[in-house]
Amino acid sequence: MKSPYPILVLVGGAAIGIATAAIAMSAQDNKPASPIFKVTVPDGYRQWQLIAPAQEGAPLNELRAVVGNTTAIKAYQRGAQPFPDGTVLVKLAWKHEQSPEFESASIPGAPTTVQVMVKDARKYASTGGWGFGRFIDGKPADEAQHRTCFACHEARAKARDYVFTRYAP
Q: Which residue range or ranges hold the Cytochrome P460 domain (predicted)?
């Protein structure tokens, strides 16, 4: 079992780097991970670049935004498919609500899910190279929900490397 406390060997200024790396690994190990794929919500994803917004109709009635890490953004900009390993996409979803200020406008209501796709062709070879995570209030959804991820992507987006979202101009 890993200790949450790093063991430091002081060698000049190197101890600071060792401490930082050990703490980062310790924090990563404690993050809730999705069943099956062991995907976690990436740190700092809310600062990532927008790929595209979307609106999901009934029965979900959600507003969504998909963001991507630098690898994802570069791949979208180049039109590269399949996406390279290291691509991470995060979909944020909120209940669709009517704006109190504008009759014709929608606004995000309560958050519903954060969904994550991670590309690693070797690790996730049986699911088109993608690992999936669906989180509700920061906790992973159950295994049954995660078993539906790839089947849905395979049925509807196989020709686009299993990714629904297209880059918004």
A: 42-165
